[in-house]
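Input record (one chain):
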Amino acid sequence: MDKLFPPSNYIPTDSAIAGIEVYRPAPAEADQPHRPVVEFNCPQCHAVTAYSAADGGLTCTHCGYYEPPHQEIVGKGAEEFEFTVETLERAAQAHGWGEARKELQCQSCGAYTSIPPETLTHTCPFCGSNQVIQRDAPQDLLRPRFLIPFKIEPAACRDITREWLGSSWMPPGLLRRLAKVADFSAIYLPFWTFDAVTAADWQAEVGHKKTERYYSGGEWKTRTKIVWKWESGQVQLGHDDLLVEGSTRLSALLLGQIKNYNMHQLAPYEPTYLAGHQAQAYDIPLEAAWETARYEMRERTREACRAQASTSRIRNFRMNLDFSDESWRYILLPVYLANYVYQQQSYQVMINGQSGVIVGQRPVDWAKVWLAVAGLLAPGLIVGIAGLITLIFGGLGLFIGLIGFILLVIGLVISFNLVRTALAMDDV
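The corresponding structure, as predicted from the sequence alone:
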C-alpha cells in the first residue's frame, strides 16, 4: 500500500541538494499571521508593481499594466478602540505590515525604516545617510488600522519646494538650485489619534480693578487697586482626533506645522498602499502617546476654564478634571521627506503628502540681512549728519536733523523685525 507523500501537515522547503525534495512541518495556525503576506508583482509581466499617488491605483513601470484603486474611504467613521482589555487584545491580534518588507537601520541617526523588498539601494530619509543595515522587517508591532493615501505626486515636490524657497529673499540663492535636485522620499509616518471628553470644575480668585478716591495732602486724589473675588465654573470639552506623532525621529515642531490632515479621507489599511513606498513603525507606544494626549487635553481644558473667568487676572486656580469616552486609533499619514546639505550642514524639508503643505529648515544668508539693515539705517544717518553739519554752519539744521532722527527710528524698527524674522527662520 503506497504511503501518502508528502505527509499531511507538511510543506516544501529549500533543499541543499539538487533533485532532492525536502519537506518540513507546516506551522501551527496560531503561528500564522492574522492576514496573508502580500507581494506586489505585475500580473501581466511579473515585474514589481508601483503605486500611483494620484488615485491610489497600481501601475507597472515595465509594461504599463494598470490596476484601478480599491479604496473604501471611511473618514471620520473609522473604527476607534476603547481603553479596555478586550479591545486592546483585539487590536493586538493584527501585527506587522501584512506584507513582506525589509527594514533598514540607519547607523548615523538610529532610525528604522520599512522599505519594499525589491529595493536595492537606500538612503535614510531622516538624516540623508547611506550608512544603513538591511534586514527582514519585524512583524511584532501593532498593524496600522487606517491611513490617508498619498495625493501629491512626487514630481510636484520639487515645484513646491522651489516656490517655498523663493517666497523669501533671505535664504542663499544656491538653495533654489539645490531644490531642483532634491531627492524626496515618500514615507508613511505613524500617528496615534485620540478622542475623549473632559469635564472640569474650577475655582479661582479673580482680580477686578477698582478706582477709589482718597484725601491726602489737602486734596482729593484717585488710585486704582485690585480687588480679589472667588469665582467658579464648569467646563466640558470634546476632543476629536487629537494627533500625536508615533515617531521620535522627526522634529515635533515641523510635524506640528504639517498636521493639517483631512481625517475625512481615512481609508482602511491595506498592504497595497505601501507599494513603492517607505514606512515607519511607531517607536512611541500607545501608553506614552496617550499621556501626551492627556496632557494636551488637560491644558486645553485649563485654558477653557480660565477663559470663563470675568477677567484675565487669576490666582489660586484649582481644577478637578475627569476624562470619559476615551478612544484611540493607530494610523499612517503620508509625508515626503528630503535632506539637503548646505555649507556642510544638513537641513530637512517635509511636505504633507495629502495637502502639499511644506515646512522645513531654510538657512539664512546673513550677509544679505546685514546689507538690508545697513540700507535701512543709512538714510537716517546720512540725513542726520547733514542736519548736524547744516546746524553748525547755520541754516535749517534742526529741521533736517529731526527728519534724520525720524528716518533712523523707522529704520531701526524695520531692522529689528527683519533680524527677528531671520533668527526665527534660522532656528527652525
